[in-house]
Design goal:
globular, single chain, 230 residues, mainly beta, 17 strands, 3 helices, Glucose Permease (Domain IIA), 13-stranded mixed beta sheet
């Protein structure tokens, strides 16, 4: 991990191909808010690039809209999440149940309910973050990984981890519209007071003009097809 022009350069926390529909490469704050340290946060989602709608589920739209898609039919669900640098685990919260299916209307209702009724000071942060991990990367840099799969977190508070260690798996817990990884850097381990820190990734590949090219110190945009397999 290094700093470059006020950006923190950090390893990529996933393997395989991903899309970042919410990214500071599109807008800042990336999630429309500075709360919970989200100013420069990323959402990483796996999709079917051969389908025009870039669906994240391996079934049809009718099933998604009216019956729901089981989590094991969603491409990103249960993919491993990796430590992007050496560090120390500060918080590891598991046990928050995932909704067993992904459904546009029920997930949207849940998201809208949280947006209007969630109280940062009174309500359980897992209602929003789901199962999550916060690790200390350096003296003033912390990384957060949210919406992890129930029962998948492999680390505990106080544990030292190395870059590339598995932290858990991508899930659909908390305020999630599809199985994905919410990843952010921030200046504190306290989500209620943390401020987001801008970051770029050491290296990944971008699909462009029919082939893959390596990007160094990049910030993926919301239409980029990216991968990392090292």
């Amino acid at each position: 991990m290094e700093k470059l022009y006020n950006l923190v350069i950090i390893g990529f926390p996933l393997r395989g191909e991903w899309l970042a529909p919410n990214t500071p490469g599109k807008r800042i704050p990336s999630h429309g808010t500075d709360q919970l340290g989200e100013r420069y946060a990323f959402d990483f989602l796996q999709v079917d690039w051969t389908r025009a709608g870039r669906n994240f589920y391996n079934t049809n739209l009718f099933q998604y809209l009216f019956f729901g898609v089981p989590l094991n039919k969603c491409y990103g669900w249960s993919q491993e999440v990796y430590a992007p640098c050496d560090g120390e685990i500060i918080i590891a919260e598991d046990g928050y149940k995932e909704r067993p299916t992904v459904n546009l209307f029920s997930d949207l209702f849940f998201a809208l309910k949280n947006a209007h009724a969630f109280n940062l000071e009174k309500d359980d942060i897992q209602t929003v973050a789901g199962n999550y991990v916060i690790m200390k990367c350096s003296s003033h840099v912390y990384a957060a990984f949210a919406h992890l799969q129930t029962g998948s977190i492999t680390v505990s508070a106080g544990q030292t981890v190395k870059k590339g260690d598995i932290l858990g798996k991508v899930g659909h817990s908390g305020n999630s519209m599809a199985p994905h990884l919410h990843f952010q850097l921030m200046d504190s381990s306290d989500l209620l007071s943390a401020k987001g820190i801008p970051c770029a990734f050491e290296q990944y590949e971008l699909f462009q003009d029919g082939g893959w090219k390596t990007v160094y110190h990049g910030v993926p945009s919301n239409k980029d097809r990216i991968r990392f397999n090292q």
